[in-house]
Amino acid sequence: MKNIYFLSDAHLGSLAIEHKRTQERRLVRFLDSIKHKAAAIYLLGDMFDFWNEYRYVVPKGYTRFLGKLSELTDMGVEVHFFTGNHDIWTYGYLEQECGLIVHKKPLTTEIYGKLFYLAHGDGLGDPDNNYKILRKMFHNRTCQQLLNAIHPRWGMWLGLTWAKHSRLKRADGKEPPYMGEDREYLVNYTKEYMKEHPDIDFFIYGHRHIELDLMLNRKTRMMILGDWIWQFTYAVFDGEHMFLEQYVEGESQP
């Protein structure tokens, strides 16, 4: 039985990350290290800091990452790509050229007899009304068409610059630390969702850039995956056990 892997939030191409080429290579080396052990890989959003596909062009860069994903799918590994709040704008390229399975909404799926709820996490229980408005604009088809009417040179500059300023508004460019079980909105969302869906075994999210492994009751476990900017963390399920691990060059640390 091969493993199932979950990771998120690499924000490849970010103008706020000085070590972005080293970061991409590290991610590619990790994917290469698991290619013979993986049955499926779930990328739970924001793998790119800004990704927008135009009719005849795609963003510059990411060739090592996209090439490795294509190699994995050519080998028969399922690679699932969840759109996050930074890489919503995908219209077929990743599926057609790289063989990815793209999800634009949360997914409930059975894996090795266990039920998983998988999502990037943005917009789930978030009380920020300004962000809710912005999120609706990002997902609005008319707004997406207007963005694609801009020349790629300026459209990509706009998206990457917006993402950079968004990150630099935070201390050290990092997300706030864990706020506690009662205040962490993804935890509160999950507890409410569980009331109507008590059969789910694992809830797994990205988005928050924190590592969290929380037992919500005797059956249900929730994880937030950290990131691939500073933490290089991921979850792995072997069909019986779930682990949250950190990738260190040449080895994995539980």
Could you explain the architecture of this structure?
The strands form two sheets. Strands 4-3-2-1-10-11-12 form a seven-stranded mixed β-sheet, with helices on one face. Helix 1 (20-34) runs parallel beside helix 2 (63-74). The chain has helices spanning 20-34, 63-74, 93-98, 129-139, 141-148, 152-168, 185-196, and strands spanning 3-7, 38-43, 78-82, 101-103, 107-111, 114-119, 202-205, 211-215, 221-225, 233-237, 242-248, 251-253. Helix 3 (93-98) links the parallel strand 3 and strand 4 (101-103). It is globular. It is α/β, with parallel strands linked by helices and 254 residues long.
Beta percentage is: 15-25%
Output the helix-strand order: EHEHEHEEEHHHHEEEEEE
N-C termini distance: 20 Å
Mean model confidence by pLDDT: 87
* Helical content (DSSP H or I, runs of 4+): 25-40%
Number of strands: 12
> How are strands sequenced across the largest beta sheet?
4-3-2-1-10-11-12
The major sheet is characterized as: 7 strands, mixed
Number of helices: 7
